[in-house]
Amino acid sequence: DGGITQSPKYLFRKEGQNVTLSCEQNLNHDAMYWYRQDPGQGLRLIYYSQIVNDFQKGDIAEGYSVSREKKESFPLTVTSAQKNPTAFYLCASSIKGAGGYTFGSGTRLTVV
Amino acid sequence: GENVEQHPSTLSVQEGDSAVIKCTYSDSASNYFPWYKQELGKRPQLIIDIRSNVGEKKDQRIAVTLNKTAKHFSLHITETQPEDSAVYFCAASYSGAGSYQLTFGKGTKLSVIP
Fold it and tell me: CA separation (Å) from A71 to A46, A104, B100?
């Protein structure tokens, strides 16, 4: 069953803690993306990667980091520098340079 | 970069009526315009898309129109049903320096009243 999988579904972070959100796809897509979704804010781009070992900052990259060591995987780390991390995080993938995205089911991150 | 404006932010219609959501974009180089439907707590799913060489596309009760001159595109849903209730996002593709990414509007919450 081809698709894109995000884990965990729910994640709780303590103040000052780094957490990593997982995103894995078996669609053979070259490009992968991370978006943050807040109520009334739509989808805002955090980071994206067009190819393995390369990635670019999106509109709201501060306080986040990513890696792209494998084509299938694009984990997102929310660092302690991100002061307001509570949000719904969506990972997506696409054919490089074209077409719509396939989204994962999301991770809801809450600061406790 | 690209900027996408979406209106209205909320829309309520009676079951069976039509719903129209409008988006404008800023970058005349954009050439791909998808629409996504997101039900509460779920992932966005592509429902229809249009490319800049086409003015209109229809899929059953859903249609999208594109006006390149005015840089706006619209989603039309006819004979609305309660299961159409969701948040709808428009998007436009922006290519620059070899990169590719979608820029999304802020979404429209559609409520279909039975």
Answer: 18, 16, 17
